[in-house]
Amino acid sequence: EVQLVESGGGLVKPGGSLRLSCAASGFRFSDYSMSWFRQAPGKGLEWVGGLTPISSTTNALSYGDLVEGRFAISRDDAKMSLSLQLDDLRAEDTAMYYCAGYSNNWARPYGGFHIWGQGTMVTVSS
Amino acid sequence: QSALTQPASVSGSPGQSITISCAGSANDIGSFNTVAWYQQQQPGKAPRLVIFDVSNRPSGISNRLSASKSGNTASLTISGLQPEDESVYYCSSHTTRNTLIFGGGTYVTVL
Prior knowledge:
The structure holds two protein chains of two kinds.
Chain A: E1 3-7, E2 10-12, E3 18-25, E4 32-39, E5 45-53, E6 59-63, E7 71-76, E8 81-86, E9 95-103, E10 115-116, E11 120-124
Parallel strand pairs in A: 2-11
Antiparallel strand pairs in A: 1-3, 3-8, 4-5, 4-9, 5-6, 7-8, 9-10, 9-11
Chain B: E1 9-12, E2 18-23, E3 36-40, E4 48-51, E5 65-70, E6 73-78, E7 87-94, E8 100-102, E9 106-110
Parallel strand pairs in B: 1-9
Antiparallel strand pairs in B: 2-6, 3-4, 3-7, 5-6, 7-8, 7-9
């Protein structure tokens, strides 16, 4: 079964840190471009950042404007996992965080994410 | 980078057709054939991809959904509206800064 499972969310104080993980199974992870997204309660979808291949061995890492240098994305193809390090968290970072991916052989870059996890909730509050 | 612009809501009766617009700029929709549309049936539930690369439907998506792009604006049309189509729909596009931006979402109501 093709699956993405996020973990690591929780309650954290302003200024604190969290590390989110996304475990992939059921597909060839290394052939997929991956991104993190978030959705604040009652709000729309936002792209946090992601990795797309620019060669057979190198990924281009990009972030949305909301990150402001506070978040870092990494992937480990051998472990089939994607991570999101969240630092200097603020109340406005409270959201459900999703990881998602698309096959590099299936869609143009950022042309459509067809595999999504169920999300992990991050709450930033004192 | 500014978000894409979608109407907040669109409604229609069962069997009718509706169209959702998604307005961008030359730096996003106008530069790439990478518009995607997502359906989110409930808040807190993961979105589902319904259109990729402007006009392509993933396997399992109803052919009542169709999409296109003209200039800096993309559109999603749902024909033969059914109760299960009632959801929030988001558009997205790759940008010239190698980022991804979304529209604010359109709530589709089936009257």
